[in-house]
Amino acid sequence: MSASSELKEDDSFDDKVNEARQVKPLGLEREASRILLRRPFSEDGAAVHRLIGNCPPLDTNSLYCNLLQASHFSATSVAAELDGELVGFISGYLIPERPDTLFIWQVAVAEQGRGLGLAGRMLREILARPACTQVRHLETTITPDNDASWALFRSLARRLDAKCADSVLFDRERHFNGQHDSEMLLRIGPFTAR
């Protein structure tokens, strides 16, 4: 059924809206299928740095930090490439004291990668890797006003059939001296990595 089909009397509006969201133009599906997901490597560091700089409201880190993310954490991070260009990147790591917990540090998707479900694909790619076979929880921090990130991670929780809990991890006044919004810790789990 197309997104523009008429409502029948017995169809609910919400059902039609949800169905319409799932319909992607054929061109977008082809574009999404051309995106290569892979482990990042150190040579991606500069491209990661540029990508994150072009994805507000993400905090930019030093280029050196991005080099470390792309090399030291490559087993739990992902790079998305379209025609040889970096269009997406997620950095993550296993929390040393809790190796069953994957912490997602940053999610960045370039303009040309948006609207394709790329961020969700990248998260699932990381969770399917050998490094994450013991992962039962995922954590990330999100500012209260970052609606796109909240939607992404809540969608992942639904897909994993897992619960979500959130709490303040770093407070605007106590930790950031009023210079940055509070960072909320979102915890998803338990789940079975797939």
From TrEMBL:
InterPro entries: Acyl_CoA_acyltransferase, Ectoine_EctA, GNAT_dom. One of its GO terms (molecular function) is diaminobutyrate acetyltransferase activity. One of its GO terms (biological process) is ectoine biosynthetic process. Keywords: Acyltransferase, Transferase. It comes from the Bacteria. Its EC number is 2.3.1.178. The keyword Transferase applies. Residues 35-189 form the N-acetyltransferase domain. Pathway: Amine and polyamine biosynthesis; ectoine biosynthesis; L-ectoine from L-aspartate 4-semialdehyde: step 2/3. It holds the Pfam family Acetyltransf_1. Belongs to the acetyltransferase family. EctA subfamily. This is L-2,4-diaminobutyric acid acetyltransferase. It comes from Microbulbifer pacificus.
